[in-house]
Every structure is written in C-alpha cells, then in structure tokens.
C-alpha cells in the first residue's frame, strides 16, 4: 500500500508508542487521526506536517467508537489503516487481583480493539481495501507473573487478529498484530535501574527496544500487501524459538 494521502487512525496516540506510530505514518505521507479518551494537546498536533485531526473517544464504549468512525468519514471520506494501540495494564498477582482490574484490562485491550474493528469494517468493506494493525505483546505469547489480565487480553488480541484476517481477506482487507517486548516507555522506565538491567540481560540484543522501532514495523505491515494474519514480535530476540 502506498501510504501517501491514505487515512490512518491510531487509537491511544496521545503519547508513547501510539504517538510514535502516528508520526511514522505521517512521515510516509499519510493523513492522521489521533485518538485518546481526552483531547490531544495542541502542541502535539502542531508537530505533524501532514493533515491531522484529533477525535476523542473511549474505545470501550461502542457508541463512542461508532461516532469516532463517523467523524473520520465525514472529515476525510475514507479510512485506510487502523492501528489499535489503546491499552492499559493493572498488574498484580492473580490471587490478589480484583475482578474489576481483570475486567477493566480485558475491556480496554481486547473489547476496545473489537469495538474499533467492528465499526471500521463497514466503510473499509465498501472500499475493498485497507488493513488493521493490532498491538499485542510478547506477554500474550508467553504469559507473565503478575500480568494474568494483561496477558489474557493480549492473547485474545492475537486470536482476534487471526480471525479478522480470515474474514477480512474476503474483501481484500488485511489484519496483523505487533507483539512488542521490552520497549523504552514511561511504563518500563518506572522500573528500577537494577530491574531494567536484569531484564536487559535476558534479551539477546541486550537492550530495550525504542518506540520508533515498533512504529517502523507498523508502517512496514501497512505497506506490504501480502502479509496478513501474522504476529510480528519486536523484542530483541526475547521470545525466539
């Protein structure tokens, strides 16, 4: 897919990986739709050199997602790439994890992704072109102590990705997932330096990834028209078989 003048929605794009992905698509010539629960700061919008709009919406609310897609179509008249990046974590050991924390993570990470795909499929089916890129995690492949809810949500995203890929292929649409490993973000920077060093030793490349490296992968998946139903790990070799 040539990304020039294509319309790209990135959910959860006020900062971090989501914002880096949006900027990478903009550099490739795409028009950008930023999204978060709250309005994006004007200073962030000013960083974009290609057309950009900000549509606030909570992806866990079906009505809000329906309005999100409607606003995109009203403004740009098309939707070509959807990056489902919105997500949260509420870590804790399973025997101490509340039902509310389990449900909230599943609702945001998995149900939110479903809500966006379901609404976006309608205009994209009519176009008979486009792709979805869902943010999973290596934790969805391996599990992790203290992240039962997060791992379950990301494993669900992987299953959803493969199912959407099979259905959407009937209309020439594609769907892939990216499974980042340890990426240098606000979330990982909250770890102590000692813990970060311990984790880095377990990674074959001996370092955390950069958000730009995840963003490059998203652009690649959008551009390659013959990749679908895949989970691309960006983890420095952490989960290699």
Structural topology:
Layout: E1 7-10, H1 16-27, E2 31-34, H2 42-45, E3 52-54, H3 62-76, E4 81-84, H4 99-127, E5 131-135, H5 139-142, H6 148-168, E6 174-180, H7 186-189, H8 193-202, H9 211-223, E7 231-234
Parallel strand pairs: 1-2, 1-4, 2-3, 4-5, 5-6, 6-7
Helix pairs in contact: 1-9, 3-4, 4-6
Compact summary:
With 241 residues, the chain is of the alpha/beta class.
Secondary-structure-derived class:
alpha/beta
CATH fold type: Rossmann fold
Strand count, sense and barrel status of the largest sheet are: 7 strands, parallel
- What is the residue-mean pLDDT, rounded to a whole number? 96
Instruction: Supply the CATH superfamily name.
Output: NAD(P)-binding Rossmann-like Domain
Cα-atom radius of gyration: 17 Å
CATH class: Alpha Beta
Strand content: 5-15%
User: If classified by CATH, what would the architecture be?
Assistant: 3-Layer(aba) Sandwich
Which spans of ≥5 residues are poorly predicted at pLDDT below 50? none
Explain how this protein is built.
Strand 1, helix 1 (16-27) and strand 2 (31-34) form a beta-alpha-beta unit. The mean pLDDT is 96. The protein contains nine helices and seven strands. The chain has one domain (7-234): Rossmann fold (3-Layer(aba) Sandwich), CATH 3.40.50.720. It has helices at 16-27, 42-45, 62-76, 99-127, 139-142, 148-168, 186-189, 193-202, 211-223; strands at 7-10, 31-34, 52-54, 81-84, 131-135, 174-180, 231-234. Helix 1 (16-27) crosses helix 9, helix 3 runs parallel beside helix 4 and helix 4 runs parallel beside helix 6 (148-168). The chain starts with 6 loop residues before the first strand and ends in a 7-residue tail after the last strand. A seven-stranded parallel β-sheet has the order 3-2-1-4-5-6-7, sandwiched between helices. It is α/β, with parallel strands linked by helices.
């Amino acid at each position: 897919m040539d990304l020039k003048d294509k319309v790209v929605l990135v959910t959860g794009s006020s900062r971090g990986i989501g914002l880096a992905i949006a900027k990478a698509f903009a550099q490739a010539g795409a028009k950008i739709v930023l999204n978060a629960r709250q309005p994006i700061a004007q200073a962030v919008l000013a960083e974009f050199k290609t057309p950009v709009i900000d549509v606030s919406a909570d992806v866990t609310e079906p009505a809000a997602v329906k309005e999100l897609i409607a606003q995109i179509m009203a403004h740009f008249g098309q939707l070509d790439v959807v990056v489902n990046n919105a997500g949260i974590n509420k870590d804790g050991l399973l025997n101490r994890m509340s039902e509310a924390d389990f449900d909230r993570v599943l609702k945001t990470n998995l149900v939110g992704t479903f809500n966006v795909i379901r609404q976006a499929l309608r205009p994209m089916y009519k176009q008979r072109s486009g792709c979805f890129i869902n943010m999973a995690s290596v934790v969805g492949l391996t599990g992790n102590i203290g992240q039962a809810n997060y791992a379950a949500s990301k494993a669900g995203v992987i299953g959803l990705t493969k199912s959407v890929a099979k259905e959407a292929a009937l209309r020439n649409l594609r769907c892939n997932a990216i499974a980042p490993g340890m990426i240098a973000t606000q979330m990982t920077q909250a770890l102590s330096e000692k813990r970060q060093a311990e984790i880095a030793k377990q990674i074959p490349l001996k370092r955390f990834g950069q958000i730009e490296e995840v963003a490059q992968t998203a652009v690649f998946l959008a551009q390659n028209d013959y990749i679908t139903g895949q989970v691309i790990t960006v983890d420095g070799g952490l989960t290699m078989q």
